[in-house]
Structures are given as C-alpha cells and as structure tokens.
Amino acid sequence: MIVFSETVDEDYPSIPAWFEAERQLLLYYVRVALNRWAAVPAPVTADAQFRALEPVFQWTKEFSGNIRLWRRGKLTDQDAAGQAVSIEEQLRAKDAWQTRPE
User: Fold this and answer.
1) What is the pLDDT along the chain (102 residues), one digit of tens a residue?
2) Can you list the alpha helix ranges (DSSP code H) found in the chain?
3) What is the pTM of this model?
C-alpha cells in the first residue's frame, strides 16, 4: 500500500493519509480477530475460526470496494480525506491510533 500511495498523482493529495488510516484500521481489526481467535472454545471448529476472523474479512471487502471506486474516479479526494479523518477519530476513541515515531 505504501509504494502504491506514493505513485498517486497530484489530484489526490489525501490518498496517502487515507491509506495510512486504512492500514491502522486493518491492524486494529487483526488485533480484534486474534483476540477472538484465542477465545474460540474447544473443540475448535472451522465456523468458529471464520467468525473470529470476520472483522478482517469485512475490512478487506470495504477497502477493496473503495479502491475500485477510487480507481474509477468515483471516490474523490474529499471523500478519501473524510474517510481518513473518520477512521482516525474512531481509532483514537478506542485508544488504537498509533502515532509513527519521527
């Protein structure tokens, strides 16, 4: 994602921030999924494992849909910026936003 975001043209200055927010959202969902996975009671079933991973699957579906919209010109830079802010606010409320070291 990082390399891809660095090749974005100047019409989309908010894309790198949006990708960073999406990356952090994915990391949050992976932590949630791993906690759910660890709590799956024995005997472990495939259905229980898939349910534990559901947050990651949902993120993948939503993010890939947004990428398709962006590539087709239907997700504006303003939309991407709004999503980035919304995701950051959501994660900060859960104390899950990670500030990168300088």
Assistant:
1) 445 545 566 778 898 899 999 999 999 999 999 999 999 999 999 999 999 999 999 999 999 999 999 889 899 999 999 999 999 999 999 999 998 776
2) 2-6, 15-38, 46-52, 54-71, 77-93
3) 0.85
